[in-house]
TrEMBL record:
This is Amidohydrolase. Its cofactor is Mn(2+). The Mn(2+) ion enhances activity. NCBIfam families: amidohydrolases. Signal peptide: none annotated. Mn(2+) binds at C114, H116, E150, H177, H378. SUPFAM superfamilies: Bacterial exopeptidase dimerisation domain, Zn-dependent exopeptidases. One of its GO terms (molecular function) is metal ion binding. Keywords: Hydrolase, Manganese, Metal-binding. Gene3D superfamilies: 3.30.70.360, Zn peptidases.
Amino acid sequence: MDTALAQLVGSLTATREARKDLYVWFHQHPELSLQELQTASKIRSRLDALQLPHTQVGETGTVCVLDNGPGPVVAIRADIDGLPVQERSGKPYASTATQVDAVSGREEHVAHACGHDFHIMGVLGALEAFAVNRDCWRGTLVAVFQPAEEAYAGSRVMLANGIREAMPKPDVYLGQHVLPMLPAGVVGTHPGPFMSQAFSAQITVWGKGTHGSMPEKGVDPVLLASNIVTRLHTVVSREVQAKDTAVLTVGAIHSGVKANVIPETAELLVNTRAYTREVSDTLRSAITRIVEGECAAAGSPREPEITFYDEYPLTDNDPETTSRVRGAFDAHFGSDAADLDQIPASEDFSIIPDALDVPYTYWGLGGFKDWENAPGNHSPAFAPDLQPTLDRAAEAMIVAAAAWLVD
């Protein structure tokens, strides 16, 4: 295996400049979720150039199946969408792209402020290495280029549009995410619950409008919303066990337009994170109970409306799969393989392998040499160092997949 793996990884040297140019293209042409038309076209063009068969799944999803005889089936996944963020990284190849959001109709600045361009290149680089070194391995490598991770839609879109038929059932499903909390080039693994389960809630409460000088003639939804916020922030400290971790954030309140007018409605936007389904269910139940109770206490003239959305599943890494990948990382990367703590961010990565009943693991990749001062994902300044991140993204995918495909 050592010789075969060295040949696979060694082939990255010959493709480095071409991969750099392609990375810069993806970085400069980010697209919003489910609008990744140029991105998908560029990926498919690269697969065509490598003479690799691929299938369109939905409008912007792509699956490539590289069959190299009997053996395990390993799927590697890359998310491909950008964010409505104006890049301020200072990179000479920084994105200046704009795009009209199909939902809001607004023109937005767009950037790969979460590193999905590196994810794309990690999978493309690994695919090419396996494609040109077929004598080194046996089995099937499946590459999944998934849209709309940021909109919590891409995995479901691919399932609804036939990803099951586009590929053989994998024996394992692998993915990675470039992160700021690891030194550049370090790969970090974590068995079990890794990225949090999450959901958001849009809450509308009703009052009774009146003049600001006559509050007794109305019901004040601003005060009602304020009481809800105060009460919601007791949930984690008073309803979640101390051994568990949870986050509840009220990110927005919208109500009223004038100082002397008590309005009729208020809207709150709430976001939660948890590492078990039970804690997530506790948060959901508490939100409903508190909102309904405060509305009743205030004499609200209508029942509140609570809509739960952006529901991300728990990323719960299969221990056996994670151990196998970690062993491969330790053997190949040495001190650049590390433990990684749980991350409170959330992902839709697990939806497809869960739907297919396939074990999975998802690891982190350090993207900044000055990692202690690195900006967080989704920041306008988030643009990882091109190297060693570009090479290590592909190398990590090769090493992980080779744990099944190379004898």
